Amino acid sequence: MSWDCGLRYVFSMSPALHHGGVCVLHDKEDLSRLEMVQRLAKDGCRLLQSHGKQGPERTSEQQSDEAVRVCLRERGHNVLVLQRVSSEQPALAASARGGGGGGDRTENRHRRYTVVLGTPEKILEHLLSDLTLDEDHGTLPGSESDTLLDDFLLTYLVFMSTSDLCQALLGHYVTKRYRGKEDGKETLDRKRKVLHLVFQWMTLCRDFLREDEHVKLFMKTLCRYILDDLYEHPSLERDLRELQKLRQLHRRHTVDECSPHRKSKALFHQLSLKENGLQSRGIQKETKEVLCHVYVTIDSYLSVRVPAGVVAQQLLQAVAERMEIPQEELVLVAVSYSGGRLLVQPQDRLYSDALTAAGRLHVCRKDLNQVVSPFSENSESHQRTAHLLSMNTWDVAVALTNFDWAIFDSVHEQELVYFTFSRHASSHHTVSLELLLQRCNEVQLWVMTEVLLCPTLCKRVQLIKKFIKIAAHCKAQRNLNCFFAIIMGLNAAAVSRLNQTWEKVPGKFKRLFAELETMTDPSHNHKAYRDSFKKMKAPKIPFLPLLLKDITFIHEGNKTFHDNLVNFEKLHMIADTARLIRLCQRDHVGNGDTPKSSPEVRTYIDYLHIIDNQQTLFELSHRLEPRS
């Protein structure tokens, strides 16, 4: 990059940036801690500083780090605003390190600069210049803790496309901007920084980038560039192995990909390559799953977890087994939103590539009509006994938690960013997140359905006691998503109005329920829940609706751009909230020690019978206990 000699650095000592103001810079040494500033100085740019009298009162330590902001102006416009922070500050302790070019590295660790505002290009440039690589291995040990890098990778899609990022990274890798001023070591260091960012990007976001054609071309081009550099920089061989592993390439590159005068050297390195895996964090499952709703009455359905590629025959078989009806007696009918009906053929796929059903699916009896209606409201499904009463409450909680973990473990923190900023345009990127939200809603409706379909008073009392115990067990198993759903189901108006039933509930269960309710208290921004959740060790499943509410408040309450500059402070807050997903998934219980429940309980939980019509639920409630 060719720097304009008219660039100016404006140093502001106030928390807010004042355009056109040049404030006092107390320590000229502060500049040496920014590699970017050093590059500007070498190119002859003018640095502004004060020449006031010296004295003890002039030391920069008397100015708080939060008050020191550095603004880069290019051609009369702000392009980057940085804020100096101390390494002792826990919230920003993992931010990028300043002073990459020289000086005392030990002292440099006490001063760091985090991005406040900037153009996408300048933010990326600062990020690369800020990286400090290990001298021996070329990567940062524990690099996931680098907050600035993580913030950028989680939220870059807000302010730049994947194609733009690919082009920018290739530009930084092959740039000639420092020709004549950059020695071999600096060139190698710059290339390794770009590769380090690429490794982290691909490892973090691999599932979202898997089918992106821009990324495929980018990876191929980058491999070719590295092969060309192997003659001059043989130590890049290990980086090439890692990049090939990420691309899942198990073939040798042709000699034509290298320059002719480097054929023999490159071929030697190609033949010496060995497998060197790069562990991927949180890889999502290859096979997407959906919660399929198969209506068995006008207003109730079975919730069935099936692969996205399920065909009608497989789904019908699963539903028939759950309803204990021979499959030969049933057919599947799709009811469109306009009211039309279509008999689904056995080999028809039920879900499109966007993971949306063709219509509302009903299971019907063959002997009713040629294209039949759903089961009537007087069917046996409404007269069934409460099977839940015969099940162990701990086993039920384990089955619920294992079901939720199977979904939550595949949720990626970037799904929250997609969900917040581009929910409708990128629904295929938020499948796991929406699946878990849907499951939370279904568990709440299931609790209401089970209670309101129980015909006798004594059994309803037993059911409520069981649900209270199941909620307590879910809390003990750190499944807060299911815990909230059960409590909300018991607190729903159609259930809570059953005064005769609740009066029969023993006092100790009422006290336990009241204690559990305090954790769901929304007062003081859900303080009770937040305090209790912080004390829980991972792995744990958070209450997803509240997490999305937090991110939505950050998004709606802060502008994404200020004067055409990316508000990176907002993106840091969003990324910091989204990272809670990663922390909760840590040390997942699925390392061979997952608690098991009985097959009967697992089958029951996998096929929940749910009434989703609120009017029907209230009618059932009033039928059980009419208004006095």
Biggest sheet strand order reads 1-2-3-4-11-10
Q: Count the beta strands.
A: 12
CATH fold-level label of the largest domain? Son of Sevenless (SoS) protein, Chain S, domain 2
Number of domains: 4
- CATH-defined superfamily of the largest domain: Ras guanine-nucleotide exchange factors catalytic domain
What structural category do the secondary elements indicate? Answer: alpha+beta
Number of distinct helices: 25
Using only CA atoms, what is the Rg? Answer: 30 Å
- Helix fraction? 40-55%
Low-confidence stretches: 1-33, 40-63, 88-110, 137-145, 249-287, 370-383
Tell me, briefly, the overall form.
Answer: elongated
Q: What is the CATH architecture assignment of the largest domain?
A: Orthogonal Bundle
Mean pLDDT: 75
Search tags:
disordered N terminus, elongated, six-stranded mixed sheet, 628 residues, 12 strands, 4 domains, alpha+beta, six-stranded antiparallel sheet, 47% helix, 25 helices, Ubiquitin-like (UB roll), Son of sevenless (SoS) protein, Chain S, domain 1
